[in-house]
């Protein structure tokens, strides 16, 4: 914690971190924190947007497959047959690792 925090602020922050500890990952390598929250996206009567995947190198394809498999294994995502889709994009981070992203059509 920041040394600039008062004792009262430190105590409040510690209390919040303990209260919501289940929302945080245990290591940096975990894909995301798991929660029991189910999300639904209301799309009204908008027709589904289905964007094709971008061409990627064999290395990028392997990374995408590994990341999707990791999210499936961790229960973060589940298989879907939805008519909605958007392409996956890999962005290289400063440390050389990859950030897994998606481009959402507007």
UniProtKB/TrEMBL annotation:
<dbReference type="GO" id="GO:0071897">
    <property type="term" value="P:DNA biosynthetic process"/>
</dbReference>
<dbReference type="Pfam" id="PF03539">
    <property type="entry name" value="Spuma_A9PTase"/>
</dbReference>
<feature type="domain" description="Peptidase A9">
    <location>
        <begin position="4"/>
        <end position="59"/>
    </location>
</feature>
<protein>
    <submittedName>
        <fullName>Retrovirus-related Pol polyprotein from transposon 297</fullName>
    </submittedName>
</protein>
<dbReference type="GO" id="GO:0006508">
    <property type="term" value="P:proteolysis"/>
</dbReference>
<dbReference type="GO" id="GO:0004190">
    <property type="term" value="F:aspartic-type endopeptidase activity"/>
</dbReference>
<dbReference type="InterPro" id="IPR053134">
    <property type="entry name" value="RNA-dir_DNA_polymerase"/>
</dbReference>
<dbReference type="InterPro" id="IPR043502">
    <property type="entry name" value="DNA/RNA_pol_sf"/>
</dbReference>
<dbReference type="InterPro" id="IPR001641">
    <property type="entry name" value="Spumavirus_A9"/>
</dbReference>
């Amino acid at each position: 914690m920041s040394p600039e925090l008062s004792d009262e602020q430190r105590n409040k922050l510690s209390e919040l971190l303990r209260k919501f500890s289940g929302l945080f990952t245990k290591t940096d390598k975990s894909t995301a924190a798991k929660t029991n929250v189910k999300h639904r996206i209301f799309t009204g009567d908008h027709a589904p947007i289905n964007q094709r995947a971008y061409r990627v190198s064999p290395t990028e394809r392997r990374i995408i497959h590994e990341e999707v498999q990791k999210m499936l294994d961790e229960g973060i995502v589940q298989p879907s047959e939805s008519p909605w889709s958007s392409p996956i994009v890999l962005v290289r981070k400063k440390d050389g690792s990859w950030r897994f992203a998606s481009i959402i059509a507007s």
